[in-house]
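Residues determine shape. Next comes a sample protein:
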Amino acid sequence: MGAGFLHIEDIAHRSAAHDFVIRPHVHRDLYQFILVERGLKKSTQDEACYQELEHALIFTPPGVVHSFEVDRNPSGYVVTCSENIVARFMAEGRETRPFDALGGGHVTFLASGSIDWATVWNLMKLAYREQQGNACLKYELMHAATTIVLIAAMRRALERSLTSPGLAPNPVIFNKLLVEIERRFRTEHRVDAYAEMLGVSTVKLNRVCKAYKARSVKQLILERVIREAKRLLIYTQKPVSELAYELGFQDHAYFSRAFKAHTGLAPKEFRETSQNTARS
């Protein structure tokens, strides 16, 4: 069907094939979330690490390096889906900050909330059973159930994170900015280019960005570039000059200065520190 890719796996079956440890990996074009009832010992997303999670949803946007480790009797589901399954929330200007692509991964605890855990869990079980069968309209049911699970997680995340209503104007502009930065951060660093794409002035775009993130558009772009640089430094052996070029910098010395200003370490120092930490 044309509604997008959606695949659901039992976490016990998925992890058993890998000795209950899913090593660090990344999905370039797919979203993934884990709905865990029990047994998730450890979950990492980029530099964040969560342990002993239960009754939670771990959301991973494209481009985030992630891994997880479970015990011998875990209970949960791993859901992988195409962008349009999640992007539908952005298209109509809904508040999606907990799940935006630039925010990295996100963990939401669902033991309480406007949609209770039992409802969320039963919906996911239903979607998984539908996938195993051949009933008519099974994909429509899977999409509907998955959508409600995502809405429950979004609501709960917002209940915990929002301090005041109407936090920012123009959510459509902000959400489109996030999508464009995610698509183009490797080749486009100019604020005016993003403003032109979205049909607004740089002043207005910065105002919207600061209302949501308390940061300028330029800072948001740089944060995304630096986060990708960290991944490449940790998970590849590419020379800094090649890495800088891949991220849109013609001058690798300028990239190194920008990286150090943001992290406190030169790229080579960051790589060495990360490798030493991994070995210890």
